[in-house]
Write a structure and sequence with these properties.
The complex is a heterodimer of chains A (312) and B (455). With 312 residues, chain A is an alpha/beta fold. Helix content of chain A is 39%, strand content 14%. Chain A has helices spanning 16-33, 57-69, 90-98, 114-121, 137-151, 169-180, 209-214, 227-230, 237-244, 248-254, 276-279, 286-304; strands spanning 47-52, 73-78, 104-109, 125-131, 158-162, 184-188, 204-206, 218-221, 261-263. Classes of the chains: A alpha/beta (312), B alpha/beta (455).
Chain lengths: 312, 455
């Protein structure tokens, strides 16, 4: 049950079959994670490099745990994209690592398309762990795994991404993945943080949060970067919270569904995009997302490595 | 430093071109097109000592000793002029030199080019400009350096424009690569250039709107997560400069125009009688922003590739005359600079050796322009805009000619280019026409596959 694609660069163009395979495998691996010894020898012949050219504690730890639970050999590499200015290109860096015999590169990079560049010039299998504002496929996969657990089906499920859509790789990957699986995707945020022509991706655009809440089964609330305020993309944190902040009172007054699911890719700006009463409340699946992150990343690595070994 | 031990013609010879100087030539049976004098017929030309001495149905026996080039089915036109080229020398001889760039120009069918001043040091004084002209002397391609509008291309103080005109013959000024950021400086430049009826070529980009954009803002920049460069960044500046040109009476030439609304603004300005002309590049008529989905740096340029609507507006603008000139914006970079993340790839693509073929494919084959129109936009109009003497195909005139095979189907192989650059979006394209050679300053430069036409 190997995947149709050699790499996982993004969810654009990834088939329903591949996504289903990953989510199914993710569920199996989650069961392993709950055992007394949460570890299998599946990838003990595989060497994985986590090449992180941008800080990301959570994603790196999630990948590293996934790799170790599968018994892969793991090497961590932290660089800054400014190593380019020191004369070493991204391709040189990875070719050097490849010369030490590695199999899979998991890469986080601040610039969109960096994983595509690697896939073009290097031999290893590439997993995109987030490239700029482009894609973050394993985040969307863990979001989908969580949604499937709590809601069962994707068909017709109304998922709204709330916040800074323009700068969000989580949004793009979720849009592609969810649409492939049959969900109806919408976005909500200030017009300055929503790309023009987003409708062309088949996405409904709301600027009124109450309207979005009323028309959603799931809200995936994105982290607002404080630097966007300095760029003039919204006037102030105070105003952002007033217009787009989510709390119990807002959900009630807008007429939210009782079953509304609240997600967040983390880390949360508490009191800005999401208040504690919701983030820690019964509708929140945020910590379930984190657990599923390890499981779904195990699934991706397992399937990319061939997927031929027994899970046991 | 000696970056290239050969001259432009040596480089052409090494690549298999025939390069010869001073040979008497009988050009037989070509269709000769010169829109300036309404000439379009099959006729023979005789060239001796660099001049056209006889035109008509010529009999070999009546002529002095010469070589014959059989050009049945081919086109002869006034030498093509590319008014937007980056030669990179001085400063970035690893990307291109005056010799390699002019050899590429000759190979692409150009007898003259205007080179932009964004070199290091910039072409902002008569001394460095005279040096550039001297490097090109003796070769088959005339180089007309474009002087910087402001010192150091910093957008602040005007250069010694009059000195560059008097000492170095400069005919056009531009801060290309950067806009003239403040309207006040642009106003004064337009006013000052009225002294010699000089033209200002603009790089229209509002830097605050362009921001960190690396491709056109739109559907595809969203999908790719790449910072978007809105068409507004261009059109806002085009609107500003048109209003300044109208107010001052100065002459404005909008470089590499790329968006539909910018072209509408120029159309509107021309109808009002503003002194404005503009140019478009082959890549903006052939490609759209969707090409960037490969994250291939060969599709990264400034202004970035537009939407299909923008591309159609470029084609229609060329057809209805709003766009006066086709220019390449030839911008060579090194391989090392190209094989990096899309956001880090420098802007610009090479174009000298593919322009003619791409124009034939996108404009000729689709009936937007015929060959007379192409000659008008690639040979006649650039010289008119720069107020340079027209190239006439007439007895007694200097022979400055481009020879075209309008039916040569060829595949673009970047490894065979004479430019140092390999950053082309057209690698592997099949093109329906090509230059067979140029005649200029006594030189005959003939493409490898055209040598057999000599008898």
């Amino acid at each position: 049950m190997a995947l149709q694609s050699k790499h996982l660069l993004g969810l654009e163009g990834v088939s329903r079959e591949d996504i289903t395979s990953i989510l199914d495998a993710g569920l199996s691996f989650k069961e392993i994670l709950n055992r007394p010894i949460p570890k299998v020898p599946t990838l003990r012949h595989v060497t994985v490099v986590n090449a992180f050219f941008e800080n990301s504690t959570r994603t790196r730890i999630s990948f590293e745990l996934a790799e170790k639970r599968l018994s892969a050999d793991v090497v961590n590499f932290s660089g800054s994209s400014s190593s380019v200015s020191k004369g070493e290109t991204l391709i040189d860096t990875i070719r050097n690592l490849e010369a030490m015999k590695i199999d899979i590169v998991v890469m986080r990079h601040p610039l969109p398309g960096a994983p595509q560049l690697l896939a073009r010039y290097c031999d290893s299998k590439v997993v995109n762990a987030g490239d700029g504002a482009h894609e973050h496929p394993t985040q969307a996969l863990l979001d989908m795994m969580t949604l499937r657990e709590v809601r069962g089906e994707f068909d017709g499920l109304r998922v709204t991404l709330v916040g800074d859509i323009s700068h969000s790789r989580v949004a793009i990957s979720n849009i592609y993945g969810l649409q492939t699986m049959g969900a109806k995707v919408a976005v909500c945020g200030p017009p300055t943080l929503i790309p023009r022509h987003l409708e062309r991706l088949g996405v409904t655009v709301y600027t009124d949060l109450d309207e979005a809440i009323r028309n959603s089964d799931v809200l995936n609330v994105l982290r607002i970067q404080m630097e966007r305020q300095d760029q003039g993309l919204f006037p102030s944190i105070r105003e952002y919270h007033a217009l787009y902040g989510i709390n119990r009172e807002r959900l009630n007054s807008a007429g939210a569904s009782k079953d509304l699911v609240i997600m967040h890719p983390g880390p949360i700006n508490r009191g800005v995009e999401l208040d504690a009463d919701i983030a820690d409340g019964p509708q929140s699946v945020i910590l379930q997302q984190v657990t599923n992150g390890v499981a779904v990343r195990m699934a991706v690595l397992f399937l990319l490595a061939g997927g031929n070994n027994e899970l046991e | 430093m000696n970056w290239s031990s050969t001259s432009a013609t040596d480089r052409l010879s090494h690549a298999g071109f025939l390069t010869t100087r001073g040979t008497a030539l009988l050009l037989k049976g070509a269709r000769v097109i010169d829109p300036a004098q309404g000439l379009d017929k099959v006729i023979d030309l005789f060239i001796e000592k660099g001049k056209i001495t006889h035109i008509g149905k010529l009999v070999q026996a009546d002529l002095p000793k010469h070589k014959v080039i059989n050009l049945r089915g081919k086109i002869i036109a006034p030498g093509f002029f590319d008014m937007h080229v980056h030669l990179r020398e001085p400063g970035r001889e690893d990307k291109e030199t005056i010799w390699t760039g002019t050899s590429a120009a000759a190979a692409g069918g150009f007898t003259a080019i205007a080179c932009m001043p964004n070199t290091d040091p910039p072409l902002d004084n008569s001394g460095v400009i005279k040096w550039v002209i001297e490097q090109a002397e003796g070769g088959p391609v005339a180089v007309h350096p474009v002087g910087a509008i402001t010192r150091g291309r910093e957008g602040k103080r005007l250069t010694d424009i009059g000195d560059m005109v008097q000492e170095a013959g400069v005919r056009m000024f531009s801060d290309d690569g950067s806009p003239v950021g403040t309207a006040e400086v642009m106003r004064h430049a337009l006013e000052y250039c009225k002294i010699n009826d000089l033209v200002l070529s603009t790089h229209s980009e509002d830097l605050s709107l362009a921001g960190k954009g690396v491709m056109r803002e739109g559907e595809f920049s969203t999908k790719l997560g790449l910072p978007g460069w809105p068409s507004l960044a261009e059109s806002v500046m085009v609107a500003r400069d048109i209003l300044l040109a109208e107010f001052t009476g100065g002459r404005l030439h909008v470089g590499h125009i790329s968006s539909a609304e910018s072209i509408d603004l120029v159309r509107w300005a021309k109808a009002r009688g503003v002194n404005v002309t503009c140019e478009a590049t082959p890549h903006h008529m052939a490609l759209t922003d969707e090409a960037c989905t490969s994250f291939d740096g060969n599709y990264k340029m400034n202004p970035p590739l537009g939407t299909p609507e923008d591309r159609d507006a470029v084609l229609l603008g060329l057809k209805d005359g709003t766009i006066d000139v086709i220019a390449t914006d030839h911008a060579p970079h090194t391989i090392e600079e190209s094989q990096v993340e899309f956001s880090l790839v420098p802007n610009g693509v090479i174009g000298l050796e593919t322009a003619l073929g791409v124009v034939a494919k996108e404009l000729g084959a689709k009936k937007f322009l015929d060959w007379t129109d192409v000659v008008q936009k690639m040979a006649i109009a650039p010289r008119e805009i720069m107020r340079l003497p027209a190239v006439a195909i007439a007895e007694g005139s200097e022979a400055e000619l481009t020879i075209i095979d309008p039916e040569a189907i060829w595949k673009v192989d970047p490894e065979r280019f004479l430019t140092k650059g390999r950053n082309t979006p057209f690698g592997g394209w099949e093109l329906p026409a090509k230059s067979l050679g140029v005649i200029n300053k006594g030189w005959l430069v003939l493409a490898p596959d055209a040598r057999m036409l000599i008898s």
